[in-house]
Amino acid sequence: MERVLGIGGYFIRATDPAALGAWYRDCLGLDADEHGLWQQSPGPTVFAPFEAGTDYFGSASQQTMLNFRVRDLDAMLAQLRDKGAEVAEEVQEMDGVGRFGWVTDPEGNRIELWQAA
Question: Considering the entire predicted model, what is its pTM?
Answer without folding.
Answer: 0.90
